[in-house]
């Protein structure tokens, strides 16, 4: 089908006296509207995603601050927390008055005690640094 001359290079200069192509204007408006709606939707989704990432980044430690394991020695009476790579809590470790581990709470795995569960730490008789052997088996935590 051959388009009329007014649809070539300067469509506003010409008219369609026969009315054969009256459908073109509403179609163009509809397509333009659809493109604008699509662009606005994409922009809104992107900005929402960025806002959520900004808020969650502010609430969790930076990657440089993340450790894969808690330290064996800490500030007496303090608690140390480590995170998994996905940002979820892996473990909290509480330090006793001597600075050695007193209790671990594990959030990311289950030895049959459920999630979370806790491990208490004992001390060596010679008073030296505790080792993995001083970490007792996990205990179920009663959540209130």
What's the gist of this structure?
With 144 residues, this protein is α+β, with helices and mostly antiparallel strands. It is built from 1 helix and 5 strands.
The count of DSSP E runs of length 2 or more, i.e. the number of strands, is: 5
Order of adjacent strands in the largest pleated sheet: 1-2-3-4-5
Determine Rg (CA atoms, Å).
33 Å
Shape: rod-shaped
Please describe the biggest sheet, giving its number of strands, its sense, and whether it closes into a barrel: 5 strands, antiparallel
The structure class reads: alpha+beta
Number of helices: 1
Global mean pLDDT: 78
Q: Helical residue percent? A: 25-40%
Q: Gap between N and C termini, in Å?
A: 77 Å
| Helix/strand order | HEEEEE
Unreliable stretches (pLDDT < 50, length at least 5) are none
Proportion of strand residues: 15-25%
Describe, in plain words, how this protein is organized in 3D.
It is a single chain. With 144 residues, the chain is α+β, with helices and mostly antiparallel strands. It has one helix and five strands; from the N terminus they run αβββββ. The protein has one helix at residues 24-59; strands at residues 79-83, 89-95, 101-106, 117-120, 139-140. A five-stranded antiparallel β-sheet has the order 1-2-3-4-5, with no helix packed on it. The radius of gyration is 33 Å and the shape is rod-shaped. The termini are far apart. The mean pLDDT is 78.
Write the layout of secondary structure elements.
Blueprint: H1 24-59, E1 79-83, E2 89-95, E3 101-106, E4 117-120, E5 139-140
Antiparallel strand pairs: 1-2, 2-3, 3-4, 4-5
């Amino acid at each position: 089908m051959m388009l009329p001359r007014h649809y070539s290079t300067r469509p506003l200069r010409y008219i369609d006296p026969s009315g054969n192509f009256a459908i073109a204007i509403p179609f163009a408006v509809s397509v333009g509207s659809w493109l604008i709606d699509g662009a606005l939707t994409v922009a809104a989704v992107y900005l929402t995603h960025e806002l959520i990432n900004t808020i969650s980044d502010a609430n969790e430690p930076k990657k440089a601050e993340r450790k894969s394991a808690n330290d064996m020695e800490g500030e007496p009476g303090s608690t140390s927390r480590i995170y998994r790579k996905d940002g979820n809590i892996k473990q909290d470790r509480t330090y006793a008055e001597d600075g050695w581990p007193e209790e671990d709470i594990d959030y990311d795995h289950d030895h049959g005690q459920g999630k979370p569960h806790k491990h208490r730490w004992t001390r060596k008789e010679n008073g030296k640094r505790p080792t993995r052997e001083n970490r007792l088996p996990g205990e179920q935590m009663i959540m209130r």
